[in-house]
Amino acid sequence: MTDAYERMMRANQSNWDARTPVHLASRFYGIDGESDPSRWFAAWEWDDLGELAGRDVLHLQCHLGTETIAFAQRGARTVGLDFSAASVTAATGIASGAGFDVRYVQANVYDAVEALGGRRFDVVYTGKGALCYLPDLDRWAGVVAGLLRPGGRLYVVEFHPLLNSLGPKPAPGEGPELLLRHDYLGGSGPVHRDATHTYTDGPAVEGATDSYEWMHGLGEVVNALIGAGLDIRRLRESPELPWPRWPHMVRGSSGWWRLPEPGIPLLYGLLASR
Length: 274
Description:
This protein is of the alpha/beta class. 29% of the residues lie in helices and 23% in strands.
């Protein structure tokens, strides 16, 4: 990885350290409430993941661990990893307060094999806003392969690159129509953001507001995993999100949100095995 990319990832790490207190206090995450961690999962995710009791599960780029706890609830021996020290501290406290034995490790995802002492897992889970912070998916896929036991499974649940290419808000003077504003495919370099507010409610982020994101099309993700020796088992595309990204989205029977029209993929789930 180039020096420039390492600098950008350090900026992202500082940004997520700064985001953490805002997210902890937000209604979006509802840490102080009685919310069920499973609310962040679609029903089809559990169908694809299968039985987790007694399994070793690793959640990469876990942030506050709001999803990580759901694996422990299902009887898995659970580890979460994130590059933000503030997030790892917060996640450890959240799990302990909820009475779950989850181990959290602070490390860059590219250093996960060494940070976890070479431990192998039955399931590696990642997603919902994680891959966009990684500049090199081939290297990431190699790390995942090194974290899985033979027969182990990777499950990626990510925002669809079509969603990422649609602007979240109309530009001044434009109507509410959804327009393609960003690249679908990678290769054009990182998108630099300098934002004082994050995707949650709450006050402005203090300090490190710079962040960098990389676009990754579905083909790039799939080919990176194949190149690392993993077998693709299933690919799903879903029209629903766990929160309303646009005001005109409607809530379905699942409790998640979709566009009334057009029917486009907003999330995808990819199951692969070693």
